Amino acid sequence: MTIEFIGFASTQEYSESTGLADAPPVDPDYLGTVATAHEESGFDRVLVAHSSASPDGFLIADQVLSRTTKLQVLLAHRPGFLAPTLAARAYATLDAFHPGRVAMHVITGGDDADQQRDGDFLDKATRYARTDDFLTIVRQEWESETPFDHDGEFYQVKQAWSSVRPATPIPVYFGGASGDAVRVGGKHADVYAFWGEPLAGIAERIREVRAAAAPCSRQPRFSVSTRPIVADTEEAAWARAEEILEHTLARAGGQAPAFKNLDHSTQEGSKRLLAAAAKGDVHDKRLWTAVAKVTGAAGNSTALVGSYEQVADALLGYVDLGVSTLLIRGFDPLADARAYGRLIELVRDGAEQRSRVSVPA
User: Fold this and answer.
1) Would you say the C-alpha torsion 122, 214, 203, 303 has a positive or negative sign?
2) Which residue among 68, 133, 146, 300 is least crowded, i.e. fewest CB within 10 A of its CB?
3) What percent of the chain has pLDDT over 90?
């Protein structure tokens, strides 16, 4: 199995434990440095995330691709704010300038307040129905060599056609933990993404998505996102983890009141992480949930703690379940991106050894 590694690129350094760097919201030099660090460490892609306050992701993605030679991007997109035909052409145009280096990460949106900041007042179930309609048109716009019509619940187009289409398919990554998410993602996803849950939880989620994808004759790949905290020794890694938690608690208690105002009560993924955190701070020996508990499980917030070898082994535990993409992001984003090169090499070596053992003589 080929293991894909995805990092995280932004225009300003941020961590739950340190807050925002004292820099402009768009710092071109930082973006270039962090992109280069990921490429040099052996990452395949970097995620360009999205929120109602984020800088424009298409421009960030183009900058990342222009400043590197092989690094690819996973560009997050929220359906509903850009017509599907326009979104499809924007991705296809980006891919035309950087062939084969672009993927779409579909984020339907689980936070009503964040959706409403951009003027979207649909409820969550309706948003997933809209995403289904949206992706149906996007695929057609990418693939159809002749004009097509579409008469859906949310979008209607007549004689739609694009002069720019990707030479090779643009992969669609998909996130979401609700029943609606699984249903829509099973229909459309090339890669279904999970947050870092205990191994039993990931196994359960893989079964759910495969069951939803089967009637559509789809066989998606799977991704898991974690926040590795690594050091030369296990003791040093746990000491660093405690320091990260201490700083995060300080921000949550006073310097970062935004943590208190975040409401992820309707996000199934957050509920799952918080349920795991309620059962204990550590699962499967390495999965640490303390930061998720403090921040309300706001996104990718569970960590794997240990030596490089121990964390590599923990990541391979997910690979053994059928996961082929690992999204890893540090609490010290730039320094960790540089340090993860060693971790990536260990995981890939371990996956190759597993493949050799599984091949019959």
Assistant:
1) negative
2) 146
3) 87
